[in-house]
């Protein structure tokens, strides 16, 4: 059986697919990185619904 | 039909990845990245390095999106002009529909992601910049008025303001002056280009000042706008982002720029044609250096500040 010779269009499509794949992978990495940075810088005490310190936890002199 | 019988010429829609990158005008993007980064770094509020990186990337992608929309709408003009005839749409490597889809998709994604990564003022400014370049400049002003460059220059002037907004969440006199610097620089920069690329614009029917008012008037305009640019550039030196280094760089550059514009003003067409627009080309090259060094000096002041060297 004879394999068909690869046409220029095939290599063009492969370059396109690789490029789009890399862009999508980079986008996922960016969103993941942003999420990590945002969550680690979050001040949870200022979140709505955050519990106020219990009265028993007051520091006595 | 076998593969071998497929026409070997470039087919519509059979673009390579690089053709889509070319739609984003990478050279313009590099200016956007640089000025946005300077605006962000010069701001008095520190930003997490990863957030700063993402914000600049999304600003650059927004700029690229407006470039793709510009190429989609201006494909007819681009095909006529020598300078732009090799772009992906006129050569048939990318279909107009694909360019439009890329432009619109990237516009939405970049604005949304900037809003999520930084803040919604910065995202709103980016959205306005894309709208201004694609609709106000490309679709309206460019084909209608010889002042197209003057007003359209605002689109290219927003990135440092967006970078500043990413860091501070606001607008201030410093960010407005950085905007004004690029805004006032654009007319002399492009009119100098038009002086030695006039036939291109004339062929495409773009009402550049050189086509509608003639070259003598364009030379006057270059000189007047260069004079108006100088106080803006020097004014930055007296704000919180300026300093002795910036002021020294700005003084030298503005003297050179005014001298270049004066040389352009004094020349007539016969002299310019005789030496193939040597002075105009030199002024154009100087204009690139002018903007780069002004923003470079703002960056240097910001970088030196933690060591007590930058600023006043």
Automatic annotation (TrEMBL), chain A:
It comes from the Bacteria. The chain crosses the membrane at residues 20-37. Keywords: Membrane, Transmembrane, Transmembrane helix. This is Cytochrome C oxidase assembly protein. It comes from Pseudooceanicola nanhaiensis. The lineage of its organism: Bacteria, Pseudomonadati, Pseudomonadota, Alphaproteobacteria, Rhodobacterales.
TrEMBL record, chain B:
Keywords: Cell membrane, Heme biosynthesis, Membrane, Transferase, Transmembrane, Transmembrane helix. It is a multi-pass membrane protein. One of its GO terms (biological process) is heme O biosynthetic process. Pathway: Porphyrin-containing compound metabolism; heme O biosynthesis; heme O from protoheme: step 1/1. The chain crosses the membrane at residues 28-44, 50-73, 94-114, 120-141, 148-171, 177-201, 222-239, 245-262, 283-304. The keyword Cell membrane applies. One of its GO terms (molecular function) is protoheme IX farnesyltransferase activity. It is an enzyme of class 2 (transferase). It comes from the Bacteria. It is found in: Cell membrane. The keyword Amino-acid biosynthesis does not apply. InterPro entries: Protohaem_IX_farnesylTrfase (IPR006369), UbiA_prenyltransferase (IPR000537), UbiA_prenylTrfase_CS (IPR030470), UbiA_sf (IPR044878). It holds the Pfam family UbiA. One of its GO terms (cellular component) is plasma membrane. Interacts with CtaA. Belongs to the UbiA prenyltransferase family. Protoheme IX farnesyltransferase subfamily. NCBIfam families: cyoE_ctaB, PRK04375.1-2. This is Protoheme IX farnesyltransferase.
